[in-house]
Amino acid sequence: MAEEDKATEDKAETADKADDPTAPHRLFCFGMGYSALVLARRLRDEGWVVAGTCRREEKRRELTDEGFEMFLFNRDQPLEAPETAFQGITHVLSSVPPDTGEPVLDHHRDHLLKLDALQWIGYLSTTGVYGDTGGATVDESNQLNPMTERARRRILAEKRWLALRHQNGLPVHIFRLAGIYGPHRSVLDRVKNGTAQRIYKPGHKFSRIHVEDIATVLQASMAKPRGGAVYNVCDSQPATPAQVTAYACKLMGMKLPPLVLFKEAEKNMTDMAKSFWRDNRKVDNSRLKFELGVNLDYPNYKKGLEAVMEAEKADANASEK
């Protein structure tokens, strides 16, 4: 038993501290989606080799044209040649959501254990694992209290990823993300198409995180890895959806939609939408600030929406040229 403990300890030390400045950094992203792609493009532009997965051939070709090494992967389609895909990998990010299990680990746990140059693993989870606190503030030390099946699955997935740290010494980090927004994925879209609502539910606030700030946090963790760490990734100003919608309307010079009581709005909500309103909590982000030294570029929804608007204008101008 002592020899096994020593082996695990040695592997943890190697994984956490391996940093050969002459060797190229190689990131592998399971799930090259909205958040992961922002990070991938940053690191590619800094000289990293970046590979990842997607589910459709059309997307694979599109991202290959951007300079990424792309592979098809989903629950029913594990990587065809994982040894080739993982060759030289130093960093791994997974944004693949759990289903009835954990697709990445169900198929490729053993392959990850064989990576001998691994310095960092990140798993993107959700602040939904904290459940409803009645508006009280939570940090990473709070007991988890999932209110939905999705959140329960996330907790099980977190435990499986962290087991790779505790049992095998891999440098796993968990990032609990608040509601993600950014260019072409924000309340501005709903204001434009006329579907935005101002729903009134007194005292009910949500945390958010701009997609660029997610990438900033992940890069900071890569530069300062601490295997087993868990971080809340959210802005510093929880706000009601009605406040956010009102500011989006102001930015766009649009008329405010009427204020609707939650009990009335709920009648026309999908089950998914209702589940988001079930939890009421504030999320503390102090750890990412003090431990990782992160200063968010968009610490509140106003700065974030202003940046989204500018980015979308720039995209529109670029497409016209």
Topology, please?
Elements: H1 2-17, E1 26-30, H2 34-45, E2 49-54, H3 57-65, E3 69-72, H4 82-85, E4 91-94, H5 103-113, E5 120-126, E6 137-138, H6 149-168, E7 172-177, E8 179-181, H7 187-193, E9 198-200, E10 208-210, H8 211-223, E11 230-233, H9 241-252, E12 259-261, H10 262-265, H11 271-278, E13 282-283, H12 286-290, H13 301-320
Parallel strand pairs: 1-2, 1-4, 2-3, 4-5, 5-7, 6-13, 7-11, 8-10, 9-12
Helix pairs in contact: 2-8, 7-9, 9-13
CA-atom Rg in angstroms: 21 Å
Overall strand count: 13
- Strand percentage lies at 15-25%
Task: Report the top-level CATH class.
Answer: Alpha Beta
Going by CATH, what is the homologous superfamily?
NAD(P)-binding Rossmann-like Domain
Helix content: 40-55%
| Count of helical regions | 13
CATH architecture: 3-Layer(aba) Sandwich
The CATH topology comes to: Rossmann fold
Q: What is the number of independent domains? A: 1
Strand order of the largest sheet: 3-2-1-4-5-7-11
Taken from the alpha-carbon principal axes, the silhouette is globular
- Summed over residues and divided by their number, the pLDDT gives a mean of 92
Structural class: alpha/beta
